[in-house]
Amino acid sequence: MAQKVSIRFYKDNKVRAVWNDEQNKWFFSVLDLIGAINQQDDYQKNRNYWKYLKAKLKESGSEVVSATTQLRLLAPDGKRRLSDAIDYDGVISLAKSIPNNKATAFLDWFTYSDNSIDGQSRKKAYTLWESNIIADNEIGTVKALQKIHAYLFGGLYDFAGKIRTKTIWKDGTLFCRAEYLLYNLKQIEQMPQSTYDEIVNKYVEMNMAHPFMEGNGRSTRIWLDLIFRKSLRKCVDWSMIDKKIYLRAMHASTTDSKYIKSLLLQALTDQINDRELFMKGIDYSYYYEQEE
Length: 292
Fold this sequence. Notes:
The protein is α+β, with helices and mostly antiparallel strands and about 290 residues long. The protein has helices at about 30-40, 45-60, 65, 90-95, 100-115, 115-125, 140-155, 180-190, 195-210, 215-230, 245-250, 260-265, 275-290, and strands at about 5-10, 15-20, 25-30, 70-75, 80-85, 170, 175, 235, 270.
C-alpha cells in the first residue's frame, strides 16, 4: 500500500509527514524539522546537527529520542531510506530543545498551522481522494466547483460553496464584477474541455471570474485536475511547479495564457491513481496561497 504522505511548508522549507494507520497520527521527518527550524537546506549539515543534538538529548534523558520512530522517506539520492520521525508532541519537544529564536518562531507556526482555516480545510481536502462528491457528468461545471468549495470550507466560512455577490480584487487585479458574474459563469461552463488548450483556457477564465469570496485558487486547481483526469487521463504534478513562477504565470494569464499553458504542460503526468501524488498536490496548492 502506498504511503500517505503530507508536506507542510515553513518559510519555503518542506517538512514531510507520513501517516501511521496503526497509531492514527502523523509522524514528521526530524531532518526536515531541523532544516526548517535552522533555515538550512544542506542535507548533510542537518544530519550532523541532529546527530549532535540526539547525543545531547540522550545524555540528558530527554524523551524526544525515545519517542522517535523510523520511517522510509525519500533521500537526496532518490531512494527511500529509513529516517527518524516524531509525532506532533515530539515536534513540540524537539523545537523546545533547540535554544534559539528561530525554534520559537517555528513552534508558533507549527502549533497554529493545523488549527487555522487553511489547516482545517487542507485536512478536508485530503479526504477528497476517497469521496464521490462529484459525478462524472458534473466535471467542469460550476456546480462541481461549488461542491468542491463547499467540501473544503464547509463549517469554516459561512459562504462555503456560494457564488459571491460582491466585487473583489487582489494584488491590483479586479475580478469579474458581481453584477456580471452569474452570466460569465454560464459562459465559462459552456466552454469546451476536450483538448489541453481548451481545458487551460477554461481554467484561466474561471480564475478571472473568481466566483467565491475566498478559497478560489485551492478549489479551482482541484476542479482543473478533475477535468484533466476525465478528458486527457492526466493530472498535474503540482510539486514540479515553483510557487513564484506559478503565481507570475497566473497573473500574466489575465492577458496572455501562454506562460501558464507551458508551465502546466511540463508538469502533466499520467499517474492519476497515485494517492501520494494527490496528497502532494493538495499540499502544494495550499502552499501557493500562503503569504510570504
